[in-house]
Amino acid sequence: MKSLPLIFLAFYFCSVLLSCTQEKKNPSDKITFTETKIDTVPEKMLWIPPGTFTMGSSDPAFADAQPIHQVTLKGFWMDEHEVTNAEFEKFVNATNYKTVAEQPINPADFPGVPVENLVPGSGVFTPTAQPVSYDNPLQWWAYVHGANWRNPKGPQSSVTGRPNDPAVHISYTDAEAYAKWAGKRLPTEAEWEYAAQGGKGRQPYYWGNELKPGGKWMANIYQGNFPDANTSEDGFEDLAPVKSFPANGYGLYDMDGNVWEWCSDFYRADYYAKSPQANPKGPTDSFDPDEPGLIKRVQRGGSFLCSDQYCIRYKPGSRGKGEVNSASNNLGFRCVRDAASPKSIKNF
């Protein structure tokens, strides 16, 4: 029997431990974007050269990102941006894959929970009507029946006409399945942070020393009073289409904000104290002292819900974490690929 969290909860505090049996979907479920005038973003990978960098954070709020340490990495290819709805749709149509959020829930895994509540779904952010304390995230997170990558906010919503938005409600299980299909893999945590620095080293923000250089927002994060009054000063209330903000020094987009991104590493709060210097791949097991019974992987980059007021883990060096079968409408991914040099792969 699996542990019995409230499956109506979502995101990090939600332990959605569902079965992962794949089922074939009806071809009529396929989504096409041909009716829109929006061009889909072609898949593109960029070369991240080998090098040595300083990893981690000295911010006392990020105890699990300490100590700061040097890491040396081989070169690798990385997706220019998060995997989009259009790209994920190709995978789904080619494989009949169903994400964890779309799969039926086995009542045997959740004894005592009424069958009518065992409905596939995922975590959706819902603004509150007034300011609230930050001690209970369930005030702004809800498990929404029917929420998944096709229907980001529930059955009444759709990704039709939004091919360039990052695919969301993607669990680690889903991201890993896509990566294998694409002949890629998920980045290690070290690769992700190295790429996010863009060749500039550790700075207060991944893009530089100022939050708003020249008065311009450089990433899709939250403005206003969280969680009730989003001013959308950066132009987006929630998801932004990929490439809406400037690329970093390596040409990568959205390495900060927009959606959290899965990394391949198991999450352990104490890992940095014993991480190897060359090409670290994370610990061999997972342990989160806050939820010791769950298997978690690292997430990086923050999302459209992060700000200095709440969820400050969009800042460089900080780490996120998530149970491998949990998802939400601010959680996506991108992939990497190994290669000897830029000359070994010309086009993706």
UniProtKB/TrEMBL annotation:
The organism's place on the tree of life at top rank: Bacteria
A single GO molecular function term of this UniProt record: formylglycine-generating oxidase activity
Alphabetical list of PROSITE patterns matching this protein: PROKAR_LIPOPROTEIN (PS51257)
InterPro entries noted in UniProt: CTDL_fold (IPR016187), Sulfatase_Mod_Factor_Kinase (IPR051043), SUMF_dom (IPR005532), SUMF_sf (IPR042095)
Transmembrane segments: none
Location of the Sulfatase-modifying factor enzyme-like domain: 43-337
PANTHER family, A to Z: FORMYLGLYCINE-GENERATING ENZYME, SULFATASE MODIFYING FACTOR 1, 2
UniProt-recorded name of the protein: Formylglycine-generating enzyme, required for sulfatase activity, contains SUMF1/FGE domain
Annotated source species: Daejeonella lutea
